Input
Amino acid sequence: MAVDPQLQSELEKRGVFVMPVEFLYNWSRKSSIWPMQFGLACCAIEMIAAAAARYDIARFGAEVFRASPRQADLMIVAGTVTKKMAPLVVRLYNQMPEPKYVIAMGACAISGGPFKEGYNVLKGIDRYIPVDIHIPGCPPRPEALLHGLMALQEKISGQRLTDARWYDKNAPAELPVPQYGPHDLEPPYHPDVWKPPKP
Amino acid sequence: MIPTVEQIRELLSAGGAKSALLVDREELVAVANFLKTDPQLRFDFCSCVTAVDYLQQGYIEVVYHLYSVALKHGPLALKVRAPRALEQCRVPSLTLVWRGCEFQEREAYDLFGVKFDGHPDLRRILMWDEFVDHPMRKDYVPPMDYEWEPTPHGETLARAKAQGGYVPASAREAGK
Output
């Protein structure tokens, strides 16, 4: 901010606040992150606990779980993503309005977890959609989810309007939905979103 | 041939894994009907349908677990064998005898490729419809998607080597 601190404090005493639009915009967004109301496995139980009275996710302005992706800002992928379910998760992500964020909650959503070697479980949802926050744990405790939410708030407050990916004209409006193939999902991952790590 | 009530009683008293009745495919429905309707047996509840793949012996065994709720006895395992080859891997369906078999026979079809003749709605139940494999068969090969790991071991290490991926120093020395 290019305002003299002394002048600013003088202005604030008179009820005038000087700040960049970005600050106000990010502050209001990070204080009202509405998650989508869906769960895939046991991590969802911890997510419910985080929303209930003891942990009370409402303290962070994120208590309004929306049953429709059209009204949600945040997708908490809470649980095991089977290959049969993965195209539906990607489609739900596509239906969310921008700006949108994704939290991968738990070992399964991050990497497949204990089912990584199986034939029917996706080895991490970040193969198909961009993930902002990974929360490890099996399942993570509600405190861990709250910590992930706070990390996301920090990330949002550091975002710039000029380089956020959804203000890029050339960015694709939606991600391709994987198809059910004869042996596996096709493609097995989206190269734009994820690449196999180099040894 | 259809067993006698005494034979079934003997199997039940043996208990546990020994109480298994192996029947031919052609006789399966007749035996099932006998077990269900005989007034001294009355196996009115089929709790489990599953299959076992015997790769070496070349057959797949379908297992039904039967109980009698009315007479409080069971379980009796009813077993039937079919060749492993997909075209010949057929057994008659028992859905019309015990209605609860429907979804479990669909599961056995989905994961083992056993076709149940006479089943009212034989579709995949767990995997998607476009899937062609039967993943619980012992010769099933999962899709190739090796991913780099800091400490690969076992099969993953073999796949990593095959793909020219990362191999830890200890494994490299052990391989020499």
Notes: The longest helix of chain B spans residues 101-112. Chain B has five helices and six strands. The helical segments of chain B are 5-14, 28-37, 101-112, 154-162, 169-175. Chain B touches chain A through 18 residues (CB under 8 Å).
